[in-house]
Amino acid sequence: MQTEEEILKIKKVKNTAVRTVVLRHLLNQEKAQSLKDIENALAYTDRSSIFRTLKTFEENKVIHSIEDGSGMTKYAVCAEGCNCDPKDLHYHFYCTNCDKTFCLFDVLIPKIQLPENFKLQQANMVVKGLCNNCNK
Amino acid sequence: MQTEEEILKIKKVKNTAVRTVVLRHLLNQEKAQSLKDIENALAYTDRSSIFRTLKTFEENKVIHSIEDGSGMTKYAVCAEGCNCDPKDLHYHFYCTNCDKTFCLFDVLIPKIQLPENFKLQQANMVVKGLCNNCNK
DNA sequence: ATAATCTTTGCAATCGAGTTGCACTAAAAG
DNA sequence: CTTTTAGTGCAACTCGATTGCAAAGATTAT
């Protein structure tokens, strides 16, 4: 497992106090985090600083963003060697009753044949409905 | 083609002035409409009335909502016999440069095998990137 | 038909995620 | 050490979505 410093160095992002704690937090979580999640976890760090940090991380492929249907963009650290291709991604299932998001790791996203000269940057596949707990 | 009155009767939604004009507008458009689109088109109808009308329509399966990556929820009239299954839907391609949304009618969404006892209500497949015009 | 009740509508206000301007501080370059 | 560039914190703002409330309209019971 890489340290925050190593990751930032590899991705050519200058290391700062805010960047280190944000990245560390993301690495410590098993679920993708929203700006609000991070803000709540890091009580003494300003929201806009976290926001700009996330933008910087995203531009430099340190993290990628996910639309999971909850209405809030979530962020997760890219796996080693991740180039944010859709093949790295999976479906998200958002339960409209309990507001939980499930990652459907077992269901792979098929290759999408885009029209001529379209360039894919990101794919968000959100499935909404009732989870096993709420479907009664 | 059904009239607004027929559709509302079939879906058991009481007919009102606002509901008729909103539904008529949606029927007349070839593209899915955002709340703002409808608001602009119907100058003398209040936004919150349109909003509540859309919620009522959605609950009663008169229309379905679409997240197309633009950040605004869009609405489209359900086809006759549509039960808002994902099989009725298609991918949306959102160009991050020119902010246009393209419906990829030719690329069908494969059947998604959900985990045991999960109930699917809606699926939004959004692909982001550069369209043929911006990819130069 | 009339009163009581429920629904719909319009307006204004609010919410919340995201974003930006600006001044201050810290780090890098000269 | 001075100049320049980058990062941070605070407050304010944007904008889509949503809600409280009172007036208007429709429905039901008397």
From TrEMBL, chains A, B:
Kindly state which keywords UniProt assigns to this record, in alphabetical order: DNA-binding, Metal-binding, Repressor, Transcription, Transcription regulation, Zinc
Cofactor: record remark: Binds 1 zinc ion per subunit.
Gene Ontology MF terms: DNA-binding transcription factor activity; transcription cis-regulatory region binding; zinc ion binding
Q: Is Metal-binding among the key words of this record?
A: yes
State one Pfam family annotation: FUR
Q: Which cofactors is this protein said to need?
A: Zn(2+)
Identify the domain of life.
Answer: Bacteria
- Which GO BP annotation is one of this protein's? negative regulation of DNA-templated transcription
Q: Where is the signal peptide, in residue numbers? A: none
Quick check: keyword DNA-binding in the entry? yes
Annotated Zn(2+) binding sites: 95, 98, 131, 134
What family name appears in the similarity comment?
A: Belongs to the Fur family.
Spell out the PANTHER family in the cross-references: HYDROGEN PEROXIDE SENSITIVE REPRESSOR (PTHR33202:SF22), ZINC UPTAKE REGULATION PROTEIN (PTHR33202)
Name under which the protein is recorded? Fur family transcriptional regulator, ferric uptake regulator
Q: State the organism named in the record.
A: Bizionia paragorgiae
